[in-house]
Amino acid sequence: MKNIAVLGSTGSIGTQTLDVVRAAPGRFRITALACRSRIDLLEKQIREFLPDMAAVFDEDAAADLAVRVRDLPVRILKGMDGLIEVCAGSRADIVVTAIVGMIGIRPTMAAIEAGRDIALANKETCVTAGHIIMPRAREMGVNILPVDSEHSAIFQALMGRHDSKIGKILLTASGGPFRNAAYEELKNVTVEQALAHPTWSMGAKITIDSATMVNKGLEVIEACRLFDVSPDQVQVVLQPQSIIHSAVQYEDGSVIAQLGPSDMRIPIQFALTWPDHLPSPAEPLDFTAIKSIEIGVPRNDVFKGLPLAYEAIRRGGSMPAVYNAANEWANAAFRHGRIGFLDICEVIEETMASATVTENPSIDEILAVQEEINRRSEVKYG
Ligand code: NDP
Ligand code: MG
Asked: The domain 2-146: what is its CATH number?
């Protein structure tokens, strides 16, 4: 029986993690759950999975939840301290980091310091603080198991072959809903149109990131961090049907890819059962039903989110944090109707152009970068 804590249990990855747990009675036990404020769903999850503790970031919602579940032997925690306690204080063997954004940095570090393995969905933490997290995890003997479908595919393509040299990683991208749109057409894209992803059903922030291709940019940086490769070794290829989830090309020219349906429960479960592939609730891929597997090249002239990410990771230091923090601000501003779709990458580009880069930034420095970018963006674009 594996003990699991889920940070962000009410979201897209969080609820699919609980589906995986539900589908395999006796295999997993939920020891802790956490969310920001959606306590109606969290209460249901607490009653179903009976964790030892649950944390709610919003303090008023935490107080409300504590009253609602006072009939149960569950500790209700609040704020950042609560998220940290869920990661470090619960008896979890593995923490699923299914929270969105850089808010996940401190809890993830706390989990690593406590020796918990990490099923890493929260890519923003890996992108901005990967240079701290990866070496520290190695020192602590902590496994970082990727949940992102592309990185799970790469991880699987590398299994057992750590001494063969990677030529390059072929990171696949669906291209999002505007894959074939002209630049001019993108000017008037609405939030609703950007939220209609062709192949994956995900949380709002990452769905917008997929439409701008910033998600793929974040994934290029995530791949460099997780697999210790240079940006030149990561090539993005379009695969509109999202059947090939990514591949590794070895130095002898052979390519090993991982294929499957567009169902996040497969990579989530694999992070929890690694190195075993066990029966899962997902429908297997029916090869006879596949009509085509197209491959294409990303349009970097239209979608600047991807080339800007290469620029950020090549520059290094705090620049990936600048790229990510500017995007977090701009993505939310777009969703709230404050800026247009094409402005998202404009904000990132301008923020990077005016940034002062710190080499090897600490976690405090990374979080200070975000605070400063939020403050300046409110003044400049708000
Ligand atoms: P959602 O928006 O669906 O869910 C986010 C979760 O995080 C919710 O449980 C939310 O709680 C919680 N949360 C947000 N802010 C806080 C906070 N300050 N304190 C505590 N909890 C918080 O996101 P996704 O599940 O789509 O994405 C999660 C992460 O996984 C992201 O980093 C994303 O990039 C990555 N990812 C997602 C994929 C997907 O298919 N969805 C695929 C690959 C990666 P509440 O509900 O209360 O707001
Ligand atoms: Mg992905």
From this structure: 3.40.50.720
- Return the sign of the alpha-carbon dihedral for residues 27, 32, 36, 38: positive
Which of 206, 215, 262, 268 most suits a substitution to test ligand 1, by most atoms within 8 Å of the C-beta? 206
In short, whether 324's Cβ falls inside 6 Å of ligand 1 is no
- Tell me whether strands 166-173 and 53-56 are parallel, antiparallel or unpaired: unpaired
Ligand 1 within 6 A of 200 CB? yes
**Whole-structure pTM value:** 0.98
Query: pLDDT tens digits for the chain (382 residues)?
Result: 999 999 999 999 999 999 999 999 999 999 999 999 999 999 999 999 999 999 999 999 999 999 999 999 999 999 999 999 999 998 999 999 999 999 999 999 999 999 999 999 999 999 999 999 999 999 999 999 999 999 999 999 998 666 678 899 999 999 989 999 999 999 999 999 999 988 888 999 999 999 999 999 999 999 999 999 999 999 999 999 999 999 999 998 999 999 999 999 999 999 999 999 999 999 999 999 999 999 999 999 999 999 999 999 999 999 999 999 999 999 999 999 999 999 999 999 999 999 999 999 999 999 999 999 999 999 999 8
Mutate to test the pocket of ligand 1, among 120, 149, 202, 266 (most ligand atoms within 8 A of CB): 202
**DSSP H or E run through 6:** strand 2-7
Give the CA count within 13 Å in the CB-facing half-sphere of 380. Answer: 16
**All CATH 3.40.50.720 domain ranges in the chain, comma separated:** 2-146
| DSSP at 288 | G
**What would the two tokens of residue 285 be?**
């891929």
Q: 72-79: long-range contacts at Cβ-Cβ below 8 A with a sequence spacing of 24 or more?
A: 72/46, 72/47, 74/46, 74/50, 77/53, 79/55
Backbone angles phi, psi at 97, to 5 degrees: -90, 85
DSSP H or E run through 29: strand 28-35
104/329 Cα distance (integer angstroms): 16
